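Researcher: Next sequence.
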Amino acid sequence: MMSAQRRVAYIIPGFMGTPEEKESREIASLFKRAGFLPVVARIPWNKKAEFADMKKYVAIFLEQYKNHHKPGDKTCVFGFSFGAMIAFITAPKIKPETLVLGSMSPSFKEDIPRWRDVWKKELQKISYTAKDLYSATTIAKKISSKTYAVVGSKEAVEVLWRAAEAVWKIPNAKLVIAQDAEHKVGQAEYRNTLKEIIDDLAAK
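Model: Next structure:
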């Protein structure tokens, strides 16, 4: 007798986020109630040089994914902010059925010209330049997953632009606006929007 196909949701918290924090637990609960097995990634964030360690974060998530994934799993990967970057960067490799990008950080090579001066100074502090960053355009063309790019209506314009540009470049993507939401995944308006997406996935 064949075992039931697992539906697994990999959740990647935002910068400095952990599996234990309230926001991660709430999102895991949304997926669990929808019939998914939630797996929250543990990323050893570098508070002093977040950009410089992105390749390390990506490698760590891929290792955690490898340890949990089983052949035949139907997977969804959700990431918020920096976690969404990791989800986006790894999508061409792991090819999840569904990709949910929550307020993806505008920290790709193409974003630098639109950065505020204070952000550029942070990059200069760690001797990092645009050439050291990932190219969103290159990655987006390789993503085959059904993708939802979520962004709050009250977020910074740079985050809104990053979500819109991702939808434009990813072949099968949809932009979802969380009305009255800021860059806060724990905010009720943001969480309710995620719930609608997750419930829709559960029905399919």
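Model: Helices lie at 22-33, 54-68, 82-94, 117-125, 136-140, 157-169, 188-202. Strands lie at 7-12, 37-40, 74-80, 98-102, 146-152, 173-178.
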